[in-house]
C-alpha cells in the first residue's frame, strides 16, 4: 500500500445533495444522511473516463462480461491478496445480492435451513426468506477486548441442525470485522464436518484498512470443495448503481452449483457495471489505496469526536469498511438512539435492529464522507443528546 496522505476529495454538500441516488434522496434537505453504504468521494478518474468514453460511443447496450471480468478479478485477487483465481471459474452476476439469493436457491430446497451471524447486513434475512429456507442465527460475540468475532460454539450448534448453507460476511458488515485465518479455518472445518455449503460474501474485501489483513475464504485449505465467494467493485469504488458482481468458485463441484443459476443471468448484468468493474480492478488500485488512507483518517477523526463529544457512545473501530457500529445502549434500546439522532439532530443513521435483534440500541454510521460532514454530523448528534 502506498503512503498516501492527501485525502480523497468530496464535493460540497450542495453538490452532494444534487445526487439522485437513494442516500441523497431519502431524507429532507436539512438531514445529513450517513446511512446507505455508498460513499461521498468523487469517482475514480480511470472509471469516469471509461464511462464517459462508452457514452460518447452510445455504447449503452447489453454487457459482455467474458473474458475481461474473469481476468480482471483474477489479476486483482492475485495482486492484492496473493489469491490465485482461475478466470474460467469467475461468473458475472447482477450484484452480490442477486448472486447470494441465486446461490442459496441452488444450494437448498425449501424448508432446509440457512445460517447467518447477526448483527449482519439486513438483506441476509430477506434472501433466506426469498428462497423459502428456514433461518438459524449464530450471532457474533464480543470478546474481552470488545472485538466482534464469529462465535464458533454457536456456529457448531447451528451446524448440528444440518443446514444447507451458511452465509459468511467477510469482512463483516456492520461491525467491520476482518475474520482471521484461524477463524476461517474453523468455519471450513465445521462446514466439512456437518456437510454445510458456505457462501462467502466478500463485497467489502477491497476495504480492509491498515492494521488488518484479509484472508479470501477460498485460500483456506479445504474451502474450495464446499464454498464459493462473491466479490464486487461496488463498495470499494462506489459503483453500486452500475450492477455488476462476480462469483468465484475454486472447484468443479462448486462451479456446478454456480451453474444452476438462471441461464439468462448474463443478460441481467449492467454493461456500465462490467466496464467500470474491469477498470476498477485493473487500473483502480492507486485510487483504492488513496481511499483506504482517507478512511483511516476518517476512522481516527471519528474516534476523536466520539471521545470528545459522545461520551455515552461506545464503539470498536472497524478493521474494514467505512461503517461504524455504535453502541448507544446508554441512550436507549431498539431504534430509540436512531430516532433521537434523526428527530433532534437531523442526522440519519441506520437503526441497529434492522441488522437483527443484537442490534437493539445500536446505530450504524457511514463515515465515507468529508471531514467537514463527519464533524458536523457528530456535533449534531451531541447536541441531540444535550
Ligand atoms: C455485506 C453486503 N452484501 C451485499 C450488499 C449489496 O451488494 P449489491 O449492491 O452488490 O447487491 C451490501 C451492501 O452494502 C453489503 O454490505
In brief:
This protein is an alpha/beta fold and 386 residues long. Helices cover 38% and strands 14% of the residues.
Could you describe the 3D structure shown?
There is one protein chain. The protein is α/β, with parallel strands linked by helices and 386 residues long. 38% of the residues lie in helices and 14% in strands. The chain has 13 helices and 15 strands. The chain has helices at residues 13-16, 22-25, 45-56, 68-81, 96-107, 123-130, 152-160, 181-194, 252-258, 271-283, 285-309, 336-343, 371-385, and strands at 32-33, 90-93, 113-116, 134-137, 141-142, 148-149, 165-169, 197-201, 227-231, 245-248, 314-315, 323-327, 347-348, 350-351, 362-366. A seven-stranded mixed sheet has the order 2-10-9-8-7-3-4, with helices on both faces. Strands 11-12-15-14 form a four-stranded antiparallel sheet, covered by helices on one side. Strands 1-13 form a two-stranded parallel sheet. α11 (285-309) packs parallel to α13 (371-385). The mean pLDDT is 97. Bound molecules: pyridoxal-5'-phosphate. Residues 37, 95-97, 121, 169, 173, 201, 203, 232, 234, 240, 245 line the site of pyridoxal-5'-phosphate (PLP).
Amino acid at each position: 500500500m502506498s503512503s498516501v496522505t492527501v485525502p480523497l476529495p468530496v464535493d460540497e454538500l450542495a453538490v452532494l445533495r444534487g445526487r439522485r441516488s437513494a442516500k441523497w434522496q431519502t431524507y429532507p434537505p436539512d438531514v445529513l444522511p450517513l446511512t446507505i453504504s455508498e460513499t461521498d468521494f468523487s469517482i475514480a478518474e480511470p472509471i469516469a473516463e471509461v464511462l464517459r468514453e462508452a457514452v460518447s460511443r452510445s455504447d449503452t447496450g447489453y454487457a459482455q462480461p467474458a473474458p475481461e471480468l474473469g481476468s480482471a478479478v483474477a489479476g486483482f485477487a492475485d495482486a492484492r491478496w496473493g489469491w490465485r483465481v482461475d478466470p474460467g471459474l469467475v461468473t458475472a452476476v447482477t450484484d452480490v445480492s442477486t448472486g447470494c439469493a441465486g446461490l442459496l436457491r441452488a444450494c437448498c430446497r425449501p424448508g432446509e435451513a440457512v445460517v447467518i451471524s447477526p448483527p449482519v447486513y439486513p438483506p441476509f434475512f430477506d434472501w433466506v426468506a426469498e428462497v423459502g429456507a428456514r433461518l438459524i442465527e449464530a450471532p457474533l460475540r464480543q470478546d474481552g477486548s470488545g472485538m466482534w468475532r464469529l462465535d464458533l460454539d454457536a456456529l457448531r450448534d447451528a451446524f448440528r441442525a444440518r443446514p444447507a448453507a451458511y452465509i459468511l460476511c467477510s469482512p463483516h458488515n456492520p461491525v467491520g470485522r476482518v475474520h482471521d485465518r484461524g477463524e476461517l479455518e474453523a468455519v471450513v472445518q465445521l462446514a466439512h464436518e456437518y456437510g454445510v455449503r458456505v457462501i462467502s460474501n466478500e463485497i467489502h474485501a477491497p476495504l480492509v484498512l491498515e492494521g488488518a489483513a484479509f484472508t479470501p475464504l477460498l485460500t483456506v485449505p479445504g474451502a474450495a470443495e464446499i464454498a464459493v465467494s462473491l466479490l464486487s467493485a461496488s463498495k470499494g469504488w462506489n459503483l453500486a448503481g452500475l450492477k455488476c458482481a462476480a462469483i468465484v468458485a475454486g472447484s468443479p463441484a462448486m462451479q456446478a452449483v454456480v451453474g444452476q443459476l438462471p441461464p439468462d443471468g448474463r443478460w441481467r448484468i449492467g454493461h456500465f457495471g462490467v466496464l467500470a468493474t474491469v477498470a476498477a480492478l485493473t487500473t483502480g488500485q492507486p485510487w483504492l489505496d488513496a481511499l483506504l488512507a482517507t478512511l483511516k483518517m476518517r476512522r481516527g477523526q471519528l474516534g476523536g469526536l466520539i471521545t470528545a463529544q459522545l461520551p455515552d457512545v461506545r464503539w470498536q473501530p472497524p478493521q474494514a469498511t467505512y461503517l461504524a457500529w455504535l453502541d448507544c445502549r446508554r441512550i436507549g434500546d431498539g431504534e430509540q438512539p436512531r430516532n433521537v439522532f434523526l428527530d433532534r439532530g437531523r442526522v440519519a443513521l441506520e437503526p441497529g435492529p434492522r441488522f437483527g435483534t443484537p442490534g437493539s440500541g445500536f446505530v450504524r454510521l457511514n463515515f465515507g464522507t468529508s471531514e467537514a460532514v463527519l464533524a458536523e454530523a457528530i456535533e449534531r448528534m451531541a447536541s441531540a443528546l444535550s
